[in-house]
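Sample log: Beta-xylanase.
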Amino acid sequence: MEEARKDFPYKDVAIHPALLLTNTTAQHIDFIMLLTNSVLAALAMAGNAVATPHAPKPKGLWEAMQSRGRDWIGTAVTFRNDTVEASIYGNKADFNSITPENDMKWGLTEPQQNNFTLAGADKYADYARKHGVQIHCHNLVWHSQLPDWVANGNFTKAELTAVMKNHIDTLAGRYKDVCTRWDVVNEALEENGTYRNSVFYRVLGEDFLPIAFKLAHAASPKSKLFYNDYSLEGSDVKAAGAQRIVKYIQSKGGPIHGVGFQAHLTSEPTTSSGGGVAPGRVELTNRLQSFTALGVDVAYTELDVRMNTPATPAKTAVQAEVYYNVSSSCLATKRCVGMTLWGVSDKYSWIPGTFPGEGSADVWDENLQKKKTVYQRFLDGILCGGKK
């Protein structure tokens, strides 16, 4: 047996007489006391330490998009005397972009040849400069809302190209400092994926597409240039037509940066949808990625989700899941750079006037109150989309 230690240093520690302090036993006690002192010191330090807070969870739509590294989220805007509506689209926690709903279209900006009326469009540019938000400018070449002198003009190829150049130079050039993006060509396709019989296609053929994009780039070289259309989400033939457009513009050296999916969707079978409903999250994601595979960005540019009215809590819950599917599909797609709601409120929605018996399509209701379930699921999709 080892000799009991005579130099045990812990004078205030009572030792049971039965415990013989060998060298080995004393070493064990030394270790235990050292460990105890270390733990007590650590606890004391922890008591004085300030905990490092976690980053706050984004509470707004734009805060969430920004946290996920995306470029924008916005809404279509028509300026009117409604301060409550203005406070919604002006809330920078939710939105950092606007799209002029009508005031940049050809019929309002050049109603007679070379007679430009731009006071309405100027208001959006001024608003963006004042408030530091982006503008998704809409649009330069579209078969609809054209003035008669364009829609029914008897042009040669050279004449129509000159008309397009003058219009695009004037409009895109005037706002080149503020238009983050342009919908250069809007809705060039029929439902079956063939080209619309517009004046642009009749006179210039398919070449009107790269012509428009080249002119837009020359007039506003910093703007991202988009082709924009509806039903790309669910129609295979129309999606194929839009992919053909992208490839054709690229083959002609046209600078096309993105494709806009309008996403005027339905949450249940309606008369206007022919009984169809919005595609699911996986289908939406796959469709977006079939376009990004061509080397372009994608975005949801005119999002709303209509239903048969009146709305009910059960219908609104289904609608909320469609909004979730849209936002989560965007965030699951690396080059889905942003989303735009086509208006914030049912109060001013275009749906009831176009599709009688349908509506309740937006994230805020007719009283400009947030639909909490819809908003939350839309936000959830932004925060969670693409995460495993």
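Observation: Residues 61-384 form a domain with the TIM Barrel fold (CATH 3.20.20.80).
Observation: The chain has two domains: 1-51, 61-384.
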